[in-house]
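2024-03-11 09:14:02 DEBUG pipeline.ingest accepted 1 chain
2024-03-11 09:14:02 DEBUG pipeline.ingest length=182
2024-03-11 09:14:03 DEBUG pipeline.predict start
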Amino acid sequence: LTVAAYDVASAGFTDAADAAMILRASALAAKAGMADLATTSDAVTTVLNAWKLSASEADRVADRMQQTVKDGKIRIQEYADNIGKVATVASMVGVPLEEINAAISLTTASGVKAEVAFTGMKTALLRLTGEAGGKKLKALGIDISAATLEAEGLAATLEKLANLDIKALEQIFGQEAIQVMG
């Protein structure tokens, strides 16, 4: 508890009521996911900070984390170890946590290791919204940007790529990210 409380405070949640909400949500997630409190509180605070959510959202964040674990082939420890790889990028380009978690669930359930799924998701988001990927998409007659992702959502945006062959997808996403987007 002491380590988790310190980590929550270090993440910027120094108000006692806020810290208590986060620790409570994290404790419930730890119990359900057979993880330790420090691990779950780390994941919860990472998500809260990346998406600029308040401590009152801790229960929702912990529930979504547990759902990702349940639906995918991933443990809470793996989620906590890797969510930071994609959280800030996803938040910056306007992709909600729920869509990231759904993609991670689907990808890990299909056999992709958690670390590769999270790293691939980050890379894919950067490629979709970056200059290099944007030029390749534009050459294919597809317009995707951070604004598109935010307005239409990740799933609808990716539907625009449904008719592309594996070579085109690899050119856009690269080998690591194609496992997440394929």
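2024-03-11 09:14:41 DEBUG pipeline.report The chain has a mean pLDDT of 91.
2024-03-11 09:14:41 DEBUG pipeline.predict end
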